[in-house]
Write a structure and sequence with these properties.
Blueprint (H helix, E strand, L loop, with lengths): L5 E3 L7 E3 H14 L7 E3 L5 E2 L2 H4 L4 H4 L12 E2 L1 H7 L1 E8 L2 E7 L7 E5 L6 E3 L7 H9 L5 E3 L9 H8 L3 E4 L13 E4 L3 E3 L5 E4 L8 E5 L7 E5 L3 E2 L6 E2 L1 E3 L4 E2 L2 H11 L6 E4 L5 E2 L3 H10 L3
Parallel strand pairs: 9-10, 10-11, 11-12, 16-21
Antiparallel strand pairs: 1-2, 3-4, 3-5, 6-7, 7-8, 8-9, 13-14, 14-15, 15-16, 17-18, 19-20, 21-22
Helix pairs in contact: 7-8
The chain binds zinc ion (2 copies).
């Protein structure tokens, strides 16, 4: 080792410290005094980002051709601002089903569903705002055993929710490339279908996104209830179901995709279909309407 690799401390002539060690300590000090980076939410899609490389330009989710960049330009907000300016509304749909939505409307108006189940509750999809009232409400219903996500437009603040409720987040592996904040609670699942508990299943159906998935809950209705997010779009008439690659940009999926999805749904028993937005529930003839809708294209 060269003489220049060491430095003497003034007044302590008997102690010499390797220069490399001093450099290391200085680097650590610099890391420690870095200002804390606050996660930012894209106000158009509601996705939370921690890494500034994703927030230094336009939102990567909205830059994708399924979304759009707003005419007024990219805008960001923080959880504190959401907590000050918005609230979450909890609505009981039935004994074991609650809906959680942010008011006034934030981002694309995402809603989450709390599904109560004997062996552990599930949050289907997620919303950006997580506040004290929401935590208290969900804990009063027994907390969460899992968060299950339909597709990337619901990633919102999933990592915060999963930390708060100490539970995993199920996301299909086909959508891994769209996960910009890879928290330790994210559990990527593979294949066509997995069973969770109490007969509840997640089914990968694709279409809107390669990882787009449905949640199938057998006990919420006589023949079973499917939560479809916006993987299937229930029309206002409730007599038609469509599948789009992009809803805001009106890009349909291909005919071969409609055929594939139609066939994938044939063997699934269900009578109720619950979509992503208000007034999107078809019951009890959801299966017949879904297949009749797809057959219009084929
Ligand atoms: Zn966005
Ligand atoms: Zn979507």
């Amino acid at each position: 080792m060269k003489r220049s690799d060491f430095i003497k401390l003034s007044g302590m002539s008997s102690i010499i410290i390797p220069q490399a060690l001093i450099d290391k300590c200085t680097e650590q000090d610099q890391e420690q005094i870095k200002p804390e980076v606050k996660p930012l939410f894209c106000t158009t899609c509601g996705t939370q980002f921690i890494d500034t490389k994703h927030t230094s330009g336009n939102c990567p989710v909205c830059s994708n051709d399924r979304q759009y960049l707003p005419a007024k330009g990219q805008a960001w907000t923080k959880m504190e601002e959401l907590r000050s300016n918005y609230t979450n509304l909890f609505t009981r749909i039935s004994d074991n089903l609650y809906e959680i939505i942010t008011l006034p409307k934030f981002a694309i108006g995402q809603k989450a569903f709390l599904i109560l189940s004997p062996n552990g509750n599930i949050l289907w999809d997620c919303i950006s705002l997580l506040n004290e009232a929401t935590v208290e409400f969900i804990k009063s219903k027994g907390g969460l055993k899992a968060i299950v996500i339909s597709h990337p437009h619901y990633y919102s603040s999933i990592n915060d929710w999963a930390e708060t409720f100490n539970c995993p987040i199920y996301i299909h592996q086909n959508d891994e490339e769209f996960i910009y904040t890879k928290g330790s609670r994210i559990s990527l699942w593979k294949g066509a279908e997995i069973e969770l508990w109490d007969g509840i299943k997640i089914k990968n159906i694709g279409g809107h996104f390669p990882g787009s998935s449905l949640l199938i809950v057998p006990y919420l209705s006589a023949k079973g209830t499917i939560f479809c997010g916006d993987t299937f779009y229930i029309s206002p008439s409730k007599t038609h179901v469509s599948v789009m690659y992009s809803y805001p940009n009106f890009i349909p999926v291909s005919l071969s995709e409609i055929k594939r999805i139609n066939e994938s749904m044939i063997n699934i028993p269900f009578d109720t279909l619950i979509g992503a937005f208000d007034n999107q529930k078809i019951s009890p003839n959801a299966k017949e309407i879904l297949h009749a809708s797809f057959l219009k294209y084929i």
